[in-house]
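I hope you will forgive my troubling you with a question about protein structure. The matter concerns a single protein, recorded as an amino acid sequence and a row of backbone structure tokens. Please examine both parts with care and let me know of anything in them that strikes you as inconsistent. Here, with my thanks, is the record as I have it:
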Amino acid sequence: MKVTVSNYSYYRSIKNGSITPFECIAKSKELGLDAIEFVDFVDFPLDKRESWKEIAESYKKECERVGIEISCLTVGADLLQNPEQDIQKIKDYIDVGEILGVKFMRHDATVGYPRDSDKYCSFDSIVDDLADKFRELTEYAESKGIRTMTENHGYYSQDSERVEKLYTKINHSNFGLLCDVGNFMCADENPAVAVSRVAPYAIYVHCKDFIKKSFYSEDPGEGSFKTRAGDYLIGTIIGHGNVPVKQCLAELKACGYDGYIAVEFEGMEDPFDGVRIGRDNIVKYWNQI
């Protein structure tokens, strides 16, 4: 097992000018991470598309200089609402991933249509179409030596049953699941139960933590967001919240998982403390299992 970090974890410090995405590479090595995961809107935003190749080359060189691996490239997409545009966008990011030398790339499925719109539809009604698009993308990525995956993310394609169904429909050896142990709470699932369902298909893991407050408690305000069913979640340091992180890691380990586990910090605490403590807790829990 190797602990990596999503560059998104530093986003609050990046936005306030405390650090640049490029500087996060050396900082991650300093904090004890084995690898770093780059994120489209953080590292390769669309408004810098003409510079993607140069950015990727500089990132790879810096990672080699400081002695840290590049674990993954993470990309947003919606293959239901913007299929042609986003298929081409993902292929362009796969080309970026080839320059970086990544072995894994994650992209979204869809956030679905708004629940109060006349376009809203069941996941079952669109899963075959999504699977066809995922298969096209993973075959393109395979030619570049990259495995693709989707994550339980975006409310609509977030439940463990739905991502398992999508994985089964795609049915391609180059495709797997990114299991985010915390994100299942956004769809009001018990993370340990959900992880136990998808662990056999996981080829990459995101680890995060949330403090959960009931719909019937006081609105915690800034820093919180709602689950699909209306409870409140607040990002926090791994081990400080209500996600049963150690139990989730135990389920993954029991299925033979021994790959990258990425710190994905979304809390209001200092990002560098959040990443450092989260990293230490992942290692501690993994060794205790």
Q: What stands out?
A: The first strand starts at residue 2 and ends at 6. The longest helix spans residues 83-100. The chain has ten helices and eleven strands.
